[in-house]
């Protein structure tokens, strides 16, 4: 049996693009989760701490929380979570069931990994297409969030974008396996 054909090294421009892309997704996810935590902490503090203090001095405070904080936190969660799909793909840290491992000779592993990345990318694009249909449906009906009355589709765009991000990475990993990081060690 002949050794597997070596794959071409990834172009430096592609490697740099993926690094910037990954940094952007990490930054967006970080900002989204900091926003969630900040909004919810301030909303609860306003209702449970500031409100009673102001009422003790005779002030009529109403709800004293941040109006719409929970809805904004949900929108941030959608953005952060779907950035996470790209982050998990970029770091090769998805949980993978060990079904069918060992069914083919280990010499075929490099080729099988490339095929698996291509199939995964294709499946991610199918899911992204359905997610885009979902977003277009929300946009066509002008679906709005309660309390804020904001249209929801701009925030929902994170759903297909997350799957497209993962799909494009999978395709690049299929073409240039050297771009794919080694999986992290998990201790069970």
Describe this entry's structure for a reader.
The protein is an all-alpha fold and 188 residues long. Helices cover 65% and strands 0% of the residues. It has 5 helices and no strands.
Number of helices: 5
Radius of gyration: 23 Å
Instruction: Specify the structural class.
Output: mainly alpha
Fraction of residues in β-strands: under 5%
Average pLDDT works out at 89
**Overall number of structural domains:** 1
Provide the succession of SSEs.
HHHHH
Number of strands: 0
Which ranges are low-confidence, i.e. pLDDT below 50, for 5 or more consecutive residues?
Answer: none
Relative helix content: 55-70%
Alpha-carbon distance between the two ends: 36 Å
List the helices and strands and how they pair.
Elements lengths: L11 H45 L12 H23 L17 H32 L12 H4 L1 H18 L13
């Amino acid at each position: 049996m002949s050794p597997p054909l070596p794959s071409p090294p990834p172009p430096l421009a592609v490697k740099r693009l993926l690094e910037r892309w990954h940094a952007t997704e990490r930054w967006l996810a970080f900002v989204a989760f900091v926003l969630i935590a900040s909004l919810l902490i301030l909303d609860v503090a306003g209702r449970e701490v500031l409100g009673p203090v102001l009422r003790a001095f005779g002030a009529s405070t109403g709800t004293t929380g941040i109006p719409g904080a929970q809805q904004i936190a949900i929108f941030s969660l959608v953005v952060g979570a779907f950035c996470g799909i790209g982050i998990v793909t970029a770091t090769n840290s998805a949980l993978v069931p060990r079904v069918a491992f060992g069914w083919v000779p280990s010499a075929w592993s490099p080729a099988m990994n490339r095929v698996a990345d291509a199939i995964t990318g294709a499946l991610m694009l199918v899911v992204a297409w359905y997610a885009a249909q979902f977003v277009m449906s929300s946009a066509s009906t002008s679906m709005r969030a309660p309390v804020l009355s904001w249209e929801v589709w701009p925030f929902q765009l994170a759903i297909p974008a997350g799957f497209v991000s993962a799909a494009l990475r999978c395709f690049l990993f299929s073409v240039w396996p050297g771009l794919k990081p080694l999986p992290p060690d998990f201790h069970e």
